[in-house]
UniProtKB/TrEMBL annotation:
PANTHER family: GDP-L-FUCOSE SYNTHASE. Catalyzes the two-step NADP-dependent conversion of GDP-4-dehydro-6-deoxy-D-mannose to GDP-fucose, involving an epimerase and a reductase reaction. It is an enzyme of class 1 (oxidoreductase). The record marks 114, 116 as: Important for catalytic activity. This is GDP-L-fucose synthase. Belongs to the NAD(P)-dependent epimerase/dehydratase family. Fucose synthase subfamily. It comes from Stieleria neptunia. The lineage of its organism: Bacteria, Pseudomonadati, Planctomycetota, Planctomycetia, Pirellulales.
Length: 322
């Protein structure tokens, strides 16, 4: 089977209203999934923190496949301010869903984490086997520990019970459904918003934080969705696999690309009093490539599509900014 085929059986996409979950649902719909084979519940219908509700749901629905894109997610500020919620919510969601899936016969469970599970000083590009080889970045330790527990639950249930439970660690994502909050958003949506507003307000300067030299990796969320279905279709999926592009771009180059796409022709200056963060951060994608997957959407095309989506959402009042 390939990433262009529907996995067999009924599929539960957890977190379907989020950026990743929505992209997975779009991909499944593109592949022609029947309504009765797609299971979704928003948080008001099923709070994944509540164990007995999660068990009742799995007992009643008995999904064959789970793509687990539900999580409490946030930027540095939120992670730093609410570490108790980040560890508790994410641990409970993972433990409840993985155990209930095992109990009620789910054949495939794909758990999602992020590359913040790797040590702060991980080798670059980061390979999967650097997991647990050094201390974590302190700002998101709570989140990372919950995600490491989730992936280890999948690994140990697979070893002990023979179920195909496995995990994927996406790099930085961008695309439709991203969060454009002025302070809480990630670098890509924050820049799209700032350049767009500079054009709208006829400003001739946009200031970016730091020296502009740090290099980062960005994957379009539609590529991720396709990669996740590819993983779910593999007969022997890796326990843990990075999903990224394996390539990076400097923050300055990214700003120039976004300026070009948004039509900003003024000056891009750098506020070097602001911190840069790690000089380079990108994933090693040799493992997923060896299974026959690679990303398809180049950055220029992806950012162009994302800006179109930003404009559409701004016009319809549906832009996410939480
Ligand atoms: N975005 C990125 O750049 C990125 C990068 C790497 C990895 N990832 C990973 O991808 C996964 C999904 O991230 P995302 O960006 O799609 O996040 P998101 O847009 O914030 O979506 C998260 C989803 O989880 C749901 N959820 C949260 N708490 C819940 C609960 N207690 N019960 C039921 N549902 C709950 C949310 O529901 P509500 O809408 O009702 O709140 C939302 O639909 C996460 O594991 C994240 O680590 C994301």
């Amino acid at each position: 089977m390939t990433s262009e085929q529907l996995p067999s059986g009924r599929i539960y996409v957890a977190g379907h209203r989020g950026m990743v979950g929505a992209a997975v649902v779009r991909h499944l719909q593109r592949l022609g999934i029947a309504d009765h084979d797609l299971i979704t519940r928003d948080r008001s219908e099923l709070d994944l923190i509540r164990q007995s509700d999660v068990e009742s749901f799995f007992e009643a629905e008995r999904p064959d496949v789970v793509v687990f894109a539900a999580a409490k997610v946030g930027g540095i500020h939120a992670n730093h301010t609410y570490p108790a919620e980040f560890i508790y919510d994410n641990l409970m969601m993972a433990a409840n869903a993985i155990h209930a899936a095992y109990r009620f016969g789910t054949a495939r469970f794909l758990f999602l984490g992020s590359t913040c599970i790797y040590p702060r000083m991980a080798p670059q590009p980061m390979p999967e086997d650097c997991l647990l080889t050094g201390p974590l970045e302190s700002t998101n330790e709570a989140y990372a520990l919950a995600k490491i527990s989730g992936l280890k639950l999948c690994e140990h249930y697979r070893t002990q019970y023979g179920v195909k439970f496995h995990s994927a660690m996406p790099t930085n994502l961008y695309g439709p459904g991203d969060n454009y909050h002025p302070e809480n958003s990630h670098v890509m949506p924050a820049m799209i918003r700032r350049f767009h507003e500079a054009v709208r307000d006829n400003r001739d300067e946009v200031v970016i934080w730091g020296t502009g030299t740090p290099r980062r990796e960005f994957l379009h969320v539609d590529d991720l969705a396709q990669g996740l279905i590819h993983l779910v279709n593999l007969d022997q999926p890796p326990n843990l696999v990075n999903v990224g592009t394996g390539t990076d771009i400097s923050i300055r180059e990214l700003a120039e690309l976004i300026a070009q796409i948004t039509g900003f022709s003024g000056e891009i200056t750098q506020d070097t009093s602001k911190p840069d963060g790690t000089p380079v951060k990108r994933t090693n994608i040799d493992l997923i490539k060896s299974t026959g997957w690679q990303p398809r959407i180049d950055l220029e095309t992806g950012v162009g599509r994302t800006y179109d989506d930003f404009l559409r959402a701004s016009q319809t009042g549906t832009l996410r900014a939480v």
